[in-house]
Amino acid sequence: MPRPEVLDWLRKRFFPHMWCPGCGHGIILHAILRALVDSGKKREETVIASGIGCSSRMPGYIDACTIHTTHGRSLAFATGIKLANPELTIVDVMGDGDCTAIGGNHFIHACRRNIGITAVVMNNNIYGMTGGQASPTTPLGAKATTAPYGAIDPPFDICKLAQGAGATYVARATIAQPVICEQYIKNGLANNGFSVVEIISSCHTQFGRKNNRRTPLDNINFFRNNSVPIAKAQGMTPEDLEGKIVTGEFVKRETPEYTRLYLDLISRVGGNKA
Amino acid sequence: MPGKKIFISGDEAVAEAVRMARPHVISAYPITPQTVTVERISDFVEDGSLKSEYLHVESEHSAMSAAIGAAAVGARTFTATSSQGLLYMAETLPYASGARFPIVMMNANRTVATPWALLSDHRDSLSQLDSGWMQVYCEDAQEAFDMILQAYRIAEDPRVMSPVMVNLDGFILTHTYEMVDLPDQEEVDAFLPPYRTENRMDLEEPRTVCYASLDEYMEFHMKQEFDMRKARAVIAEVDRDFGIRFGRQYGGLLEKYRCEDADAVIFTLGSVTGTVRSVIDSMRGNGYRVGLVKMRFVRPFPEDEVVDIAEKVKAIGVLDRDLSIGYEGIVFSNVSSSVLRACSAPAMVNYIGGLGGRNISKDNIQEMFLELLRAADGEKGKRVRFVNVGSEYDG
Questions:
Q1: Residue B293 to residue B235: CA distance in whole angstroms
Q2: Total domain count for chain B?
Q3: Do residues A222 and A203 touch, judged by C-beta distance below 8 A?
């Protein structure tokens, strides 16, 4: 049962939620709320943005300042919000399809700018809401309604993508590690820049039933048995790492945050004068 | 494959028609309530019953772009979308029509955000009325099946060479099941021969497609407009030929139902047509002279047919499942401009209903007819009425 101060952040009139029983996204919702509460955030100073998909229903359930935007564009909306009011804490909740397919462009540019937003990417390797189509993170060989013989498109590694594009905090955990999820989200919130926390989530309904992970527990066990911490992964060969989920913090570095640079520029060139 | 009758949904009927139309390339991105169509097509490609290239792309913008690319090398193409997906495609729609590529697309009519909603209205497709695409609206799954086949014949006709959007009301048609008559593949092949075109990249004689031009820009679009006008006759011709071959005919640009001596008629698009038909049957039983005009094509617009109707009736109601905010229903505006050409001036009332899937009941339709009959007798009323809302919204 969530703590009372965490329960306060739930928009109870929107319940029951629409996620399937056993969906991994509930674990992530709880982790996000604990991280926000423990980081001392206030509901009236916190924005939760989302695009489209199962993950994107999350802002409906959070009693903060929330916005449910068009497919793939939540980071563009969030960028506008952050620039208009840099004091706000912004968490952008996204799925793998939303973040890396239709919204891939906004994702890499948010990373590049290092704007102060925390993106929580719920990666369940599939388009769940629309019925199980292959996404850019569907693993090679995994089956989907649009990949009946198994996917042949090489998947994105979201953390490597974020790192390459310039995000200043990048971490990955799975829903089998709820406390670590919470810790990484807290670290992401503390980073003054663009943070990407990829959380490997499960969709037993669409992904699992086609890929021998039919029950929620199958998925949790799969994550538990196939996760490798970074330190251990560094000593392993690419062959050994095949099919494994490398977890941990990949990037933690400080570069100037975008809205800070933007405001500095304005004062340097003499803007904002009455 | 011999003809047969099967029990399928509207989405599945479209998929079956696409299988029989044998497109070379299909590109699609999932969006409710279109998804079942592209999933079924993906099954057909998997089981070998449809020999097509199937691309699952990363957005609707890419889906239409891929279809344009395929059409540019002379392929018959198919894609499908809905709602926000169609709006996201918007940039590429005039690109396809301007390049004169006869792409066929199914659109599952769903309202647009915000507020977010999943159910049906026509705000998505009607917002793209000026994109240079033909638009046809279907009443049931059988018509959807038949119109996919007809759409390819119309689009690929050398006199027309323009893309067609086949619209089905989301959920009401896409997700409900009915018996659909599937013809014999050989008969379909005879009706729809393989696509051959000069409008393509040619490896023997390299040239550009989708070119840029300032000098000829205006003449280019005039040619497009003149060909779209010719499409009216082609639509009627294809419908007749379809009727001869398969025993089903739809009236071409529009269908008139019990209009012969009607005082008042209602214009409809899509699935609500069936409800209006049944209201007319019961009102006719009680002596009311009412009729239906089922608008099938909105582009090209059935101008002459509308003028003809306007000269015979005393009152016209247009039931719009859309709203051009700041004015009136989009279909009403279109119908009204043709009615102006008529020698008589029937009373005109615009009924805005069914937005975001709001029900339009038989009682609602009967009330519209009764009001139209009063208007036919000279009673003055409101020009735009909202259907099935609280009296505080339409007092």
A1: 17
A2: 2
A3: no
B326 and B218, same structural domain?
Answer: no
Q: B10-21 vs B141-156: helix axis angle to the nearest 10? A: 30
Chain B residues 87-106 with a CB less than 8 Å from chain A: 88
A101–chain B Cβ distance below 8 A for any pair: yes
> How much is the ipTM here?
0.75
- With an 8 Å Cβ cutoff, are A146 and B31 in contact? no
Query: Nearest Cα to B28, choosing from B1, B55, B61?
Result: B55
Shared-domain flag, residues B236 and B385: no
A130, B88: Cβ pair inside 8 Å? no
| Same-domain pairing of B242 and B316 | no
Q: In a structure prediction context, what are the per-residue pLDDT tens digits for chain B, which is 395 residues long?
A: 568 999 999 999 999 999 999 999 999 999 999 999 999 999 999 999 999 999 989 899 999 999 999 999 999 999 999 999 999 999 999 999 999 999 999 999 999 999 999 999 999 999 999 999 999 999 999 999 999 999 999 999 999 999 999 999 999 999 999 999 999 999 999 999 999 999 998 888 887 777 777 788 899 999 999 999 999 999 999 999 999 999 999 999 999 999 999 999 999 999 999 999 999 999 999 999 999 999 999 999 999 999 999 999 999 999 999 999 999 999 999 999 999 999 999 999 999 999 999 999 999 999 999 999 999 999 999 999 999 998 877 65
CB pairs < 8 Å spanning A and B:
46
Interchain proximity B30–A130, CB inside 8 Å: yes
pTM of the model: 0.88
Two structure tokens written together for B145: 């099946």
Beta carbons of B274 and B300 less than 8 angstroms apart: no
Which structural domain range is residue B9 located in? 3-246
Regarding whether B288 and B233 lie in a shared domain, the answer is no
Does B72 share its domain with B179?
A: yes
Of B31, B38, B37, give the one whose Cα is nearest residue B10: B37
Measured CA to CA, the distance from residue B258 to residue A152 in angstroms comes to: 56
